[in-house]
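Quick question, first post here. What does this chain look like in 3D?
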Amino acid sequence: MAGASIALAYTARNYKLAFRGQVTDRFTKALERLDSERMHVRLGGILALEQIAADAPDQSRHARQVLSAFLQSQAPRCGGREAGAPLPADVTAAVTALISRYEPFARLDFRDLDLSQTYFGRGDFRNAQLERVSLAGANLEFSFFANADLSGADLSGAWLDGAQFHYSKGLTVEQVLSAFPSLGTKLPNGIENDPLVVERISEVEEWKAGRNS
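> Answer (accepted):
Ran it through. Tokens below.
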């Protein structure tokens, strides 16, 4: 029995070492892809990092750091994107990968980025730094913003159906009025009961009813 236990422990150790080696190799290849000039290769690198974070939780923080650095170097800044131009596919993929799972001690940095006119529904923006970010016209349905700092963020025309903003920071009545909140939008107490916000929600609900009739 003792021999079998030792053999099992040895096998387990070898498996862990082999798995770690595979993860390291995958990580290296993903980094190489991110540096490519070809869009589809960069997208492959982003998807590879997202998969590494799922397969090897102990590497999740490193994968997210790389994706965050990529985003900071590639994402357009507010005012630096041509009107009507779509967000680059690799930038969209990097944001989506970062907000697809909640990391309790992570604080995503989207400050001053132009992420407008893009679908980020059901995204997890908890604890994120969203100061002065442009989410104008973005679809943020059923996304989570607890403890996120939205100071100066542009939410004009953003779709907020089901989005969770309670416990968020920096959100103002003016920001909500510029967007499309609904009865399913959870807002901080000081904003939720504001008469103008209540009226705005009523307008959006009437529009939704007319669209679905």
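The chain has a mean pLDDT of 90.
Residues 10 and 107 are 39 Å apart (CA to CA).
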